[in-house]
Every structure is written in C-alpha cells, then in structure tokens.
Specification:
The protein is an alpha/beta fold. The chain is built from eleven helices and nine strands. The strands form two sheets. It has a six-stranded parallel beta sheet with strand order 3-2-1-4-5-6, with helices on one face. A three-stranded mixed beta sheet has the order 7-8-9, covered by helices on one side.
Length: 302
C-alpha cells in the first residue's frame, strides 16, 4: 500500500495510472499536478485524484512515497529541478517517458546526488486521445512496462516502482536506456512519424477534400496514431533524434527498393516483400494475443 502518490500530468497516462492504483486498493491518497486548472478540476470531479496542486508546489510532494512524471519528456529536467530541493530521502521518482537516454541525462543534471531516487520507466500502452476523460482503469492490464534502472538505484526503489505498475496490471520488463531508445525508434517513434507525414501530405494536396472523402478503414487504421499529441511527439522525435534518423534512413532505403520494383514491374519482388510482411505481422499478432488479454474497444478513437 502506497500512502501518497503524486502524478505530474493527469491525462491519459497519469490519469490511468491513478485510476488503476485506486481500483487495486494500492494507494491511499493521489495528488494530481498539472499546468491546466481545468484538467485538475475534471480529474477531481472524476474522482481519480484526491487533491490538486500546481507545478512547483513544495507541499505537493511532501511525504510522498512515489512521484510519477507523466508530462512531455522535454519537461523532465525542469520538473525534476523544481522537485530536487524538496525531495525527501524516502520518496522515489519515476517517469513514463517514451525516450530514456535524454530523460536519464536530464535527471542526472537536475538531481545530482539524489539520482538514486529516480527509476526511469516507460509503460507500453496508450491511445491517441488525451486529457482527464481519456484515462481508463485497465489501460495497463497485460501490457508491458519497461524499466531502465540506473546503477545508483537501490533494489527497494526499483521494487517500489515495479510494484506500482504491477498493481496496475502491467508486466515488467527491463532494458538499458540505450537499448530502449533503439528499440522504440523502430517500433513506435518511426510509425508515428510516418503516420503524421502521410496525413500531412494528403492534407496539403489541392484535392485533399476529395481524397479524405474516400479514405476508409484502411487509411483510418494506418493513420490512427496521427491523432496523438503533436507537442508530445515533437519532443519524443527530437529527444531520440539519432536513433530515429537511423531507422528513417533504413525505411527510406526500403521505399527506394520498393519503388525500383514497382517501376520495373517486378511482380515477384513486390509480392515477396508483401508476403514477408504479412507473415511477420501474423506471427507478431499471434504472440501478442497469447500474451495479452483482449482489450475493450476504443470507442473514443472513432
């Protein structure tokens, strides 16, 4: 049982964390911290935070067992620098950022000798909606949460963070910050960049209205993640710039090969690429369905 949890950012990620902890009976008091007074008021109304505070409030983290940063990654250093003077020895801080190397660097700069109290993390779950109303109690059930512990972290600190995510239903995995950023550049950050690029390209065409009129479920499914927060994904793209550029270059090379096959009318080469992708996707889906319970339909995304 956590006595007090403080969450910076009470939208989809932070709000779902609060809801899950409360539903599991794993926390007595949740403090929500957010730049938006409207978000705080709505989270209080929905009942998944017990009190609200503005960023920079010293009282907000007093006697906290756990602090979760669920704000855009570019804000990590500023938030931690404000927390550092008031961070009590028993308080553990973690984050939910989609990049880790930059977060660790910011944490080291902000926390100095208190870096052992920061355990980096990343829940692999989400939707393209945000705000307090987007928070759902079972967002993390059966989903992975990756922790990237630091050499300075005590085992008890790692266990506290892992235990909180497990109370939310998550499955704990461990990577180094560098491994994390390379993996997610390929399977998360690049797909978001591509989805944004495609929708932006269609919208800029002079006949975009006609194109969108006939875009159906395939286009909707492929571009769903382009509905995500532009601010958040701007920060993620820049924070993981080197790894993302490597993956983007590899993808551009793949597109060049496909273009050559198309231009040459090479049906066999095109079909071989499509078949390999189909086979890999089916294997991946089968593995996911075995490991994770079925999720409720996301009506908000429609």
């Amino acid at each position: 049982m956590l006595n007090k949890v403080v969450i910076f950012g009470i939208g989809l990620i932070g709000g779902s964390f609060a809801r899950a902890l409360k539903a599991a009976g794993a926390v007595r008091h949740v403090v929500g911290v957010d730049r938006s007074q409207a978000f705080l008021a709505r989270a209080l109304e929905l009942g998944y935070i017990d009190s609200a505070a503005q960023p920079g409030s010293e009282e907000a983290i007093a006697d906290a067992d756990l602090v979760l940063l669920a704000a855009p990654v570019a804000q990590t250093g500023r938030i931690l620098a404000a927390l550092a003077p008031h961070l009590q020895p028993h308080t553990i801080v973690t984050d939910a950022g989609s990049t880790k190397s930059d977060v660790v660097a910011a944490a080291r700069a902000a926390l100095g000798g208190k870096i052992g109290q920061f355990v980096p993390g990343h829940p692999i779950a989400g939707r393209e909606t945000n705000g307090p109303d987007a928070a759902i109690v079972d967002l993390y059930v059966g989903k992975k949460t990756v922790l990237t512990p630091l050499p300075e972290n005590a085992p008890e600190a790692i266990a506290r963070v892992a235990g909180a995510w497990q109370a939310c239903g998550a499955i704990i995995h461990t990577l180094t910050p560098e491994e994390h950023d390379k993996v997610f550049a390929a399977v998360s950050h690049l797909p978001h960049l591509l989805a944004y690029a495609l929708v932006d390209d269609i919208e800029r065409k002079p006949h975009s209205g006609l194109l969108f009129q006939y875009a159906a479920s395939g286009f909707r499914d492929f571009t769903r993640i382009a509905g995500s927060s532009p601010e958040m994904w701007r920060d993620i793209s820049l924070a993981n710039q080197a790894a993302l550029l490597t993956e983007l270059d590899a993808y551009l090379a793949q597109l060049t090969r496909l273009r050559a096959s198309l231009a040459a009318g090479d049906a066999a080469a095109l079909e071989a690429t499509y078949a390999n992708a189909q086979r890999a996707r089916r294997q991946w889906l089968a593995a996911i369905e075995t490991a994770e319970p079925p999720q409720p339909k996301d009506t908000a995304a429609e």
